[in-house]
From TrEMBL:
It is found in: Cytoplasm. This is Glutamate--tRNA ligase. Its main location: cytoplasm. HAMAP family: Glu_tRNA_synth_type1 (MF_00022). It comes from the Bacteria. CDD domains: GluRS_core. Coiled coil: none annotated. Monomer.
Length: 467
């Protein structure tokens, strides 16, 4: 096979959201192609008209967009290519690699019942396989691939190793139905060939399909792509990933507040490794990703690891990138966009907010002091610290701050001096200050908040709280 340019593809069925397993498959294909200057293509396998919906297609596109997985060219619709798939089936008929089968469903069922009764294989063996075309009736037929009956088919898989399947275990699969529509098994091969796909990286639930699909490549004299069947994702308990484990649409991870770059990092580590590296950038992933690093065992989804990576990425992201993703998070969750003054305060506070937060909701909770408007309404827990004594101390503090130099050293000196004058430690002052400035019991440091808010807003909030 010529591999002048690597071409990979992601080919989801539009029957629902882009789930986490599909997102990882897309990511692996994207990393492999983009890291080698190749093409990453997108095909929507929408031949199942009863279950395919435009809404699901949009959800898939939206999920890929959020994850930052850009694709080359137009989105290919498998359904729109039905005539081309049928053309290939007829070419195989002409070349003798396929045949018309006129067997009815009742006849096929009778064959299987008899085989089962005799303890034989129930793989259907059509009496029309070697029939003289002249004897063909004028009746509906399907087009079946004429699979070899002897020998073996070997799938040379970059993840699973060589997988050998005895040809007597393969049936003469249907390529065209009796109504002339192509089957999925044929369509996939024709589309991958016509799109120039060099590497088929997909879930290992397709491994059995590969043997049958490889026969179509061979029948047409086409290059077989490099196979790479990746293990599925399991839950923490080792069972197949389900919704209770976190088998959600990727848009739900955006709504939970994970940055896209953290999601890419985490998904890359689900089943692939580069030494002991856990945290890495997109640039590193593109440079490092290869098929040899993919393990054979199912990966286990772990929210704790995702949270940990998410926190690390938030800490090193540029402030502008955080704000841009924050905007997208607010929009995705139906929340009000940031006002210009809030955005400026958030931007000023970002060095304080990024450290320790693992998700955007956590970051916004830390940022309450910056996004809140006067008068600050303390929550139940922080309100308890605003007793009469505390209010009196805040009232005493306010005039000392009005003409002070607004830097950390000066502020620390004033607050520590006030605490000492009242025979207490600064820690005792911190709680009412948090309540006055943020309305919360848990906040960034008092000094960080005062420096971000500035003199006028700090003094105004303290006056409100001590009134």
């Amino acid at each position: 096979m010529s591999t002048d340019q690597i071409v990979t593809r992601f080919a989801p069925s539009p029957t629902g959201y882009l789930h986490i397993g599909g997102a990882r498959t897309a990511l692996f294909n994207w990393l492999y192609a983009r890291g080698r200057g190749g093409k990453f293509l997108l095909r929507i396998e929408d031949t199942d008209r009863a279950r395919s919906t435009p809404e699901a297609t949009q959800a898939i596109l939206k999920g890929l967009d959020w994850l930052g997985l850009d694709y080359d060219g137009e989105v290919i619709s498998q359904f729109d290519r039905a005539d081309r798939h049928a053309e290939v089936a007829h070419q195989m008929l002409t070349s003798g690699h396929a045949y018309k089968c006129f067997a009815t469903q009742d006849e096929i069922q009778a064959f299987r019942d008899a085989a089962r009764a005799e303890g034989k294989s129930t793989l259907y063996q059509s009496p029309w396989r070697d029939a003289d075309p002249a004897t063909h009736p004028d009746a509906p037929y399907v087009v079946r691939l004429k699979a070899p009956r002897e020998g073996v088919t070997v799938i040379r898989d970059q993840v699973q190793g060589d997988v050998t399947i005895r040809n007597d275990q393969l049936d003469d699969m249907i390529c065209l139905r009796s109504d002339g529509t192509p089957t999925y098994m044929l369509a996939v091969v024709v589309d991958d060939h016509d799109m120039g796909v060099t590497h088929a990286i997909r879930g290992d639930d397709h491994l059995n399909n590969a043997a049958r699909q490889q026969l179509v490549y061979e029948a047409m004299g086409w290059d077989v792509p490099v196979w790479a069947h990746i293990p599925l994702i399991h839950g923490p308990d080792g069972k197949k990933l389900s919704k209770r484990h976190g088998a959600l649409g990727v848009e739900e991870y955006q709504a939970m507040g994970y940055p896209a770059r953290a999601m890419r990092n985490y998904l890359a580590r689900l089943g692939w490794s580069h030494g002991d590296d856990e945290f890495f950038t997109d640039e590193q992933a593109l440079a490092w990703f290869d098929l040899k690093g993919i393990g054979k065992s199912p990966a286990r989804f772990d929210f704790k690891k995702l949270d940990n990576l998410s926190g690390q990425h938030l800490a090193v992201m540029d402030d502008d990138e955080v704000l841009a993703e924050l905007d997208a998070f607010l929009a995705a969750t139906g929340q009000n966009p940031l006002q210009s003054q809030q955005r400026q305060l958030l931007s000023d506070a970002m060095p304080v907010l990024k450290t320790g937060a693992k998700t955007f909701p956590q970051l916004l909770e830390k940022a309450t002091f910056a996004t809140a408007s006067r008068p600050i309404e303390p929550d139940e827990k922080s309100a308890k610290s605003l007793d009469e004594v505390s209010r009196g101390i805040l009232k005493e503090l306010t005039p000392q701050l009005q003409n002070a130099s607004w830097n950390r050293d000066t502020l620390e000196g004033i607050l520590n001096g006030l605490a000492e004058a009242h025979g207490t430690k600064f820690g005792k002052l911190a709680a009412p200050l948090r309540a006055a400035l943020a309305g919360r019991a848990v906040t960034p440091s008092v000094f960080d908040m005062m420096l971000v808010l500035g003199r006028d807003e700090t003094v105004a909030r303290l006056k409100d709280a001590s009134a």
